[in-house]
């Protein structure tokens, strides 16, 4: 009796099972049956949009994006070609300016030298005229005036273009500006290691030495025992 009471089915469970059997016998569908699930699935699928719309929209978006990118590539290509053409034109103009500067860079200097040549030519004509007349004193005076005028004009031209003559006498010997010819004994008032005599003038152009001055440098005289 004790074992039967433990395994006895409760009455409410028996009533639920009996009700379910009766419903199944009358053809009712269980709420969790396969048929119910199939019907529910069919109803849900009928409400979803067709599968053909998804890929078509994606393809259309990709095509629009591809057209946009292609247009951007074309614009960038045109800009690049224009930039290359502009840089090439600038390079050619710069090269032409450099060549012109090499050729015509001394144009102003040459123009001023022409005036010096005119003075020299006039002086030569005066000398030849004085020689024919036989007045040597007058000829020498003309030569002197012509040479003086020529020297003054040359100094003016040199100063105008930044060409200056160096006057190194008394300055300390500098191998970057002076070319040593020989050493001479230091005289009175002459410091050893300084320029005592200039054999040929040196010149600077805009502060840069273009010709060294040929000089003699003073040194201490050796005493004889």
UniProtKB/TrEMBL annotation:
Put simply, this protein is called: GrpE protein homolog
Its cellular-component GO annotations read: PAM complex, Tim23 associated import motor
Q: Where in the cell is it found?
A: Mitochondrion matrix
Q: What is its main location?
A: mitochondrion
The Gene Ontology terms for molecular function here are: adenyl-nucleotide exchange factor activity; protein homodimerization activity; protein-folding chaperone binding; unfolded protein binding
- PANTHER family named among the record's database cross-references: GRPE PROTEIN (PTHR21237), GRPE PROTEIN HOMOLOG 2, MITOCHONDRIAL (PTHR21237:SF10)
**Purpose:** Essential component of the PAM complex, a complex required for the translocation of transit peptide-containing proteins from the inner membrane into the mitochondrial matrix in an ATP-dependent manner. Seems to control the nucleotide-dependent binding of mitochondrial HSP70 to substrate proteins. Stimulates ATPase activity of mt-HSP70. May also serve to modulate the interconversion of oligomeric (inactive) and monomeric (active) forms of mt-HSP70.
GO terms for biological process, alphabetical? protein folding; protein import into mitochondrial matrix
UniProt KW keywords: Acetylation, Chaperone, Coiled coil, Mitochondrion, Transit peptide
Biological source species:
Trichechus manatus latirostris (Florida manatee)
Q: How would you summarize the oligomeric state and partners of this protein? A: Probable component of the PAM complex at least composed of a mitochondrial HSP70 protein, GRPEL1 or GRPEL2, TIMM44, TIMM16/PAM16 and TIMM14/DNAJC19.
Q: Would you identify the family this protein belongs to, as annotated? A: Belongs to the GrpE family.
Which Pfam family, any one, appears in the UniProt record? GrpE
Coiled-coil boundaries: 59-86
